[in-house]
Amino acid sequence: MSGSSSTPELLPILSRGKHRNSRKGACFMEMASVLAGERWSDHPRCTHPLLAELARLVNDSTSDAQRHRLAVLIPSVVGLNSDDLRMDARIALRCATAALPVASAERQNALAVAVLTADSVLAGLDGRLVSNLEHGSSEALQAVPAAAEWSRRFVRRQGVSVKGFRRISAPNTVRVAVLSIADACVPDPDVILRQLLEDVIQDCMALCVPKSAVPTWEPLTVSSAAGAGCA
User: Fold this and answer.
1) Interior angle at CA 104, CA 100 and CA 106, nearest 5
2) Using CA atoms, how far apart are residues 199 and 226, in angstroms rounded to an integer?
3) pTM for the structure as a whole
4) Best CA proximity match to 60, nearest among 13, 19, 12, 16
5) Angle between helices 85-99 and 170-183 (to 10 degrees)
6) What pLDDT shows up at residue 23?
């Protein structure tokens, strides 16, 4: 990248929003575009669109004092992309389950529906019975029994549209989840947001990296697998 005109001479400090160039600052995904050797953009091709959307939202929702702590994760999203619908479903499910226990009451129903929807999509892709929820899904729903019951009735009545999941349901889930965490009455939402982004990156890596390439004696982490791309 040494000869690229898109590479800034000095790496800017992470800040909110979209920036015309590095002199104006940079968000998480703009820095990822630099590391990937792409044109300056907050929508680089190197990263899965939904993962990139989550990164932008976390970047903008994190406090100015703590945003710099996200920088270490930037190399991990470069090359992390796939057309596999499992990635969209896994991202949405992780976001919904992370946000549901801390979300305000008025957002719990929507997030509970998101949990059931994303889990159902994964079940269909993996050949699992829809009724056999993943452990994380069951645990998140158990934390909000009223919303869980409402969401089950809603999903039974409306069904799950796999066709519109990637385009509508998954992006909406990510946005509601990040907003719910940012607004939650918890001591430090910045910590939850950063952990969510780190967990989603690891989930995506697990889908992208062939199992044979992952040492059985060492768990896959963001630090050890940073920069790993999809086949």
Assistant:
1) 100
2) 13
3) 0.84
4) 16
5) 20
6) 67
Q: What single-letter amino acid sits at 178?
A: V
User: d(Cα 186, Cα 19) in Å, to the nearest integer?
Assistant: 30
Contact status, residue 25 vs residue 52, Cβ threshold 8 Å: no
pLDDT at 72: 92
CA torsion angle for 174, 176, 177, 183 (degrees, to 10)? Answer: 140
Positive or negative, the Cα torsion across 102, 107, 108, 110? Answer: negative
**Residue that has been written with the tokens 């702590």 in this structure:** 69
CB-based contacts of 199, cutoff 8 Å, min separation 6:
94, 98
The predicted pLDDT at position 21 comes to 66
**Shortest CA distance to 144 belongs to which of 119, 108, 196, 90?**
108
Vertex 64 angle, CA 180 and 87, to 5°: 45
Q: How far is CA 69 from CA 35, 191, 193, in A?
A: 17, 10, 11
SS3 142: helix
Instruction: Let me know if 7 is exposed, middle or buried by CB neighbors in 10 A (0-12, 13-18, 19+).
Output: middle
Query: What is each CA distance from 198 to 98, 110, 128, 158, 213, in whole angstroms?
Result: 12, 23, 26, 33, 20
Token representation of residue 192: 């939850």
pLDDT averaged per 10 residues, the chain (length 231)? 44 71 79 91 94 96 93 94 96 98 96 98 95 96 97 94 92 98 94 98 88 40 45 46
Sequence length of the chain is: 231
